[in-house]
Amino acid sequence: MQLVENLKWRYATKKFDETKKVSATDLEKIKEAISLSASSYGLQAYKVLIIEDTEVRKKLQPASWGQSQIVDASHLIVFCNYTKVQPEVIDEYLELKANTQGLNVDDLSGYGDFMKSKIGSLPEDAVKAWTAKQTYIGLGNLLAACAELKIDACPMEGFEAEQYEQILGLGAKGLSAAVIATIGYRSSEDPTQNSKKVRKPIHELFEVL
C-alpha cells in the first residue's frame, strides 16, 4: 500500500528550507484533502487559516515557543474550531446538503432538530472540546496528503492558543486555535530527517477482542 510507504517517508520536520515554497497547485490539493475529511454530522465546525504573510508569522513565533518552523516553512496552517455551534450553523449545513444532493430542505428538518437538541444540550466547554477534536481529523489528512506529494510537514501543539487568538482576531469570529501545522521542504541541515521512527510494535499497539 503506497500510503504506508508515504507515511514511513514523512517525519515531523524540525528545520525547513526557507527558500523552497509549496506550489499553488499542490496547495490546492492539500486544501481539497482537508475539505474531504470526515467530521461529526458533516458539519465541518472549524476553519483553516493558511498563513503566508511573513510579518504575521513573526508575530506568531514567540507564541509558538520560538520554534523556527513558524517562519521558515513555506506555509503555516492554523486549524481553528468553532467555540459555539449555533442553530444557524446547522441550518446552513442543511441548505448546503439539500442543494448538493438535490433534496428538499424541509425533509431534513427532523435531522436538523436532532442535531440541535444533541449539540444544544452540551455545556459550552464540551462543545468547544468536541469541535476541536474535528480539526485533528483534518490535520491527519493534511499529513497524509503532504506525504503523498513529498511535501514535508510538522504538526504542532507547542503554541499558546490564547495569544494566537489575540494576534489573529479569532475571538471576534467565534473561533479558537486548536492545532497548527507547518508545511514546506526539509532543510538538508535538519538532523532529525535521518532518525529512525520510534513506534510501538504492532502486537503491543493493537488488541483483538
Automatic annotation (TrEMBL):
InterPro entries: NfsB-like, Nitroreductase, Nitroreductase-like. Residues 7-185 form the Nitroreductase domain. GO terms for molecular function: oxidoreductase activity. Keywords: Flavoprotein, FMN, NADP, Oxidoreductase. It comes from the Bacteria. Its cofactor is FMN. Belongs to the nitroreductase family. This is Nitroreductase.
